Amino acid sequence: MPKSLTSKSLTSKPLKPGSLADWLQYLETLHPVGIDMGLERVSQVATRMGLLTRPIATRVITVAGTNGKGSTLAMMDALARSHGLRTGTYTSPHLLRYNERVTINGQEAEDHQLVEGFAEVEAARLQEPAISLTYFEAGTLCALWCLAKAKLDLALLEVGLGGRLDAVNIIDADVGVVTTIAQDHANFLGTDIDQIGREKAGIFRPLKPAVLGSQSLPVSVADSATAISAPVYSLGVAFSHSLLAGSDQRTARNAGSNLIESGLIETGIVKHDVTEHGPIGGVRESNDTTSASWCWYGLNVDGETISLNGLPDPGLPIDNAATALQALSLGGVLLTTKACCDALQSVRLPGRMQWLGQWCLDVGHNPHAAEYVARRLPMPPPGGRQWALIGMLNDKDADGVIDALLPRITDWVCVTLEGERGRPAAELAERITSRGGSVRYCAASPEEGVSALAESLTLDDRVLATGSFFTVAALLANPLPQARQA
Which of residues 322, 346, 370 is at a domain's end? Predict the structure, then answer.
């Protein structure tokens, strides 16, 4: 326990359940640091709450990764509900309302549910000896309590930071998913990609499926799963996707029982057989977009090959959609094409390549995410400019993000984000101009940046707002200006 922690913060009397805002403000005072990696304290309080004595849902899927966690989880939620399952989700951070972090069957948790959950957490942590919790740890316990109370078929949990030592990892997942691995949160996870991979692979459990959602993960992820006898299902090996363009309606090839190579089962690696067309697990390059529809190949819990054809573009990364399907299949969901099409057509995730008129909002805040945005960002109409309104935090790789976006951006607006972590707009501008970029405005806030940009916006212009959850949240709070016909 940190020495700087005061006895008063540990033993203060529980609040009478008031407003959610009151609770959130109170929780920020409970621990001397915002992030305190480790499971001992949160596990002790969870035990007192009875969260570790019985499953919080019939099935639990936990998702870790540098990027793609939110979209993978959102698609799993929509897909599972489309198949008739009662679901609950826990994600972070939120954009506009804390309630976004907890959903029950597609609906945000009500204030009174969260207030009741925080009261349960507070009562448990103040049992002797009193235990200090961070804001995130208290929020995680509240979410788990709400999910457990909802009697769910499936709980979907998103790791906040890393994996092995994240508060979410007190729950044993029936399926563990790692989406992508890249450098982020270097002050906590370091810069060694293999070590980052091992940290995120800490969500895997012995003998439980480990789903790997990228073909470029460090070997440490699969090695960590194999070391605990967790069967590995990798994108491009055990499951895959391909585009369907025009008459190119490729169907899955049924290779029968020999699809699983017995020599690899012992190491926990499930691999498709290789046919004359190449590995069925191969992923056809799609440049992260689909022109019409796509098909998915994967495995069910019995190791049988299954396929889904004619799936719609969800407007989110297809790799993540394929990963979501494989994780659900291993979680026991009997996938049908109709239910999957219905879900993928309806899924929405605010702040991920979200178009609002001329504005595209994306919360990407590291180079890996920025590279994806740059690939997917459409060209503006002839004569139009591609603006970027960017605001970032001090602990993020601004140079890497700028380098990824620079070839696609003609005009920049730099904004300062609120708080000690906010990177000054002038510093962002200096980094951009030193690389040859054109910075048109610097503003003291995202809102001021929007106002400045609005004066120059034409009908053919497009604007990317990015760099942080805080940047996007500020823009979602108010209607965005659109250019008008003169």
Answer: 346
381 within some domain: yes
Predicted pLDDT of residue 190: 60
Distances (CA, A) of 288 to 283, 311, 365, 372: 11, 15, 18, 8
HEC secondary structure over 246-309: CCCCCCCCCCHHHHCCHHHHCCCECCCCEECCEECCCCCCCCCCCCCEEEEEEECCCCCEEEEE
Q: What CA–CA distance (Å, rounded) separates 276 from 224?
A: 32
Residues of the chain with pLDDT under 70: 1-17, 31-35, 183-190, 245-292, 485-486
Half-sphere exposure of 481 (CA within 13 A, CB side): 16
The predicted structure's pLDDT at residue 485: 66
Q: Count, in order, helices (H) and strands (E) of the chain.
A: 17, 19
Structure tokens at 154: 């499936």
Same domain, 327 and 364: no
Same domain? For 325 and 360 the reply is no
Note the pLDDT of residue 37. Answer: 74
Tokens of 17: 């359940």
Which phi and psi (to 5°) does residue 17 adopt?
-50, 115
**Of 310, 326, 346, which residue constitutes the final position of a domain?**
346
Cβ atoms of 138 and 168 closer than 8 Å? no
* Distance (Å, whole) CA 80 – CA 60: 12
For the chain, what percentages of helix, strand and coil (3-state, to nearest 5) are there?
35, 20, 45
CA pair distance 271, 226, nearest whole angstrom: 14
341 shares its domain with 369: no
Please state, in angstroms and rounded to a whole number, the distance separating the CA atoms of residues 165 and 159: 10
Check residue 132 and give its pLDDT.
93
C-alpha 308/C-alpha 287 separation (Å) is: 21
Residue 62 has φ and ψ, to the nearest 5°, of -110, 135
Q: What is the pLDDT of residue 391?
A: 98
Structure tokens at 192: 């060694």
